[in-house]
Amino acid sequence: MVVSSLKLQDLIEEIRGAKTQAQEREVIQKECAHIRASFRDGDPLHRHRQLAKLLYVHMLGYPAHFGQMECLKLIASPRFTDKRVGYLGAMLLLDERQDAHLLITNSIKNDLSQGIQAVQGLALCTLSTVGSAEMCRDLATEVEKLLLQPGSYVRKKAVLTAVHMIRKVPELSNIFLPPCAQLLHERHHGILLGTITLITELCERSPAALKHFRKVVPQLVQILQTLVTTGYSVEHSISGVSDPFLQVQILRLLRILGRNHEESSEIMNDLLAQVATNTDTSRNAGNAVLFETVLTIMDIRSAAGLRVLAVNILGRFLLNNDKNIRYVALTSLLRMVQSDHSAVQRHRPTVVECLREPDASLSRRALELSLALVNSSNVRAMTQELQSFLESCLPDLRADCASGILLAAERFAPTKRWHIDTILRVLTTAGTHVRDDAVANLTQLIGGAQELHAYSVRRLYSALAEDISQQPLVQVAAWCIGEYGDLLLEGGCEETEPLQVEEEKVLALLEKVLQSHMSLPATRGYALTALMKLSTRLRGDNNLSLPCHILELKGRLPSHSHATLWPSRIRQVVSIYGSCLDVELQQRAVEYNTLFRKYDHMSQSLPPVVDCSQGGSQPSSLTANQPQCASPRKSERHPDPPCAQGSAWS
Q1: Counting beta carbons within 10 angstroms of the beta carbon of residue 84, is it exposed (0 to 12), middle (13 to 18) or buried (19 or more)?
Q2: If you ran DSSP here, which 8-state letter would residue 353 be given?
Q3: Cα–Cα distance between 564 and 112 in angstroms, integer?
Q4: What are the boundaries of each domain within the chain?
Q5: How many angstroms separate the CA atoms of 280 and 38, rounded?
Q6: Distance between CA 286 and CA 241 in Å, rounded?
Q7: Where is this region: Disordered (predicted)?
Q8: Chain-wide mean pLDDT for the chain?
Q9: Sorting pLDDT into bands at 50, 70 and 90, what band is 493?
Q10: How many Cβ atoms sit within 10 Å of the Cβ of residue 462?
Q11: What is the pLDDT of residues 36-83, one digit of tens each?
């Protein structure tokens, strides 16, 4: 006996009337029990009603797997009302991961052969939704027959089912090649659009199909030209653009057919120029057609003038108020910058303006394109724009912007001084966001430019005196002061403003770096090594009295005590770090203290260090990769010869 249950409409009203989730679950559990009982009793007249309620429950997210076999029974039923609900249930409850979906293969095959369009449509929809590779192989012949049926309703669904089959089983492409050529003569919009999509799938997955359909390029060009000039049908026009969906699909297919094929590309050139110049850009539909036209021009072997036209279209997109259009324009220009660099360069001012966009995705894409546009002729102007952007950009973009500026300066720097100034400005603005090798690259650059040693040390000293929070900048400045501290005190640099620097200020600044809580252990290592180098590079006044702030803080000297010689002050500072918790700093301090105790008498008589990078032809100050012989990093574990490769702190 069939258990009475609610009708579908009553079930929906009762579920919607539930005030709490618990009440909703109670209603659904009760009704699912009635549905299970009905399925067990095998009531054939009300099975489709029970399954319809179960499908609604499934749509709400509750389990409904127990209705899968009922779907198969309804599909096998001769009544259309049963088949309609059964096929709908199969599309919702079955998928390729379950073996039960294979049981409906025979039912679909029988329904495709019946000749009833409504039933054939249901079977084709189900096959295109849950059809597995096995089902596609078994039913490909039946679908191929339906492609040439007289009814447009079935043919349209058969074309879409064929697209699904090709995606599942690409080797079935040979079956669908012959009907496609005939379907291109269709006037029905849905069939023609589906056929273009089917040919696109075939060409993407089969080289033989690609070669076969290159013969129909003139026909495709004629269809698109008719769309552009006379239109297809009024009901498919959008905002004055004739059937933009069909235009986009044809352009996409032409792009595939014309790629790396000179003859096909030649046939398309005139049409693409016509589409690019006659399409209305005031509406989104026209912009979509234009964008697809640009992509086609970029991919095929188009004429040079046509590529310039495509770049100009993208340039107009950059002026559009729609952010999405500007984004796709920037992305497309970034793809074209390698092949058409001069054409993209014409829109450089507009691209630079996009850097100021508040939208992060737009500014990031504009940054990537701006960096790609930098060359030897515009490096000064572009770097200035990028540095201005670096000062105000979002934190997420600073690392990419700083790295891009450093790479551009390394590739296209007109002079070494400009290169050094650029890196210093980046380090000053966004030092914490630069790459790890920025410090080593700058020290190597400064060390190799002997004529700029005095200029560099004075610039770095001034920058360090203003800000010690940018750790890469502090590290480079400490290294440079240690290497060229004597040039800093001489004050003979004509390229900078007069700067009076005394030994006390230099030592106080390095001590400030050592004391700062912002200094990393590596930064303290640079400062400690710089102090060690200054002990041999500078010779102070023996009567000079200097306060030792760091010694007072550590309790080594009373507040009223003074060191009469700054070399002894350096020794005291170095000795403090002999008990540092950081093992690397402690090792450095111990090694330097040993050099002070045992070899201090040799520091006055050491000859100048020979620059190994110049073949030993002339003495010079230390370069970025050469530690000074008077203050090398020596230890029992890592002995280094005087002119060997030094560490980062040396």
Answers
A1: middle
A2: H
A3: 105
A4: 1-94, 99-214
A5: 60
A6: 6
A7: 609-650
A8: 83
A9: low
A10: 15
A11: 998 888 878 888 999 999 999 999 999 998 888 999 999 999 999 999
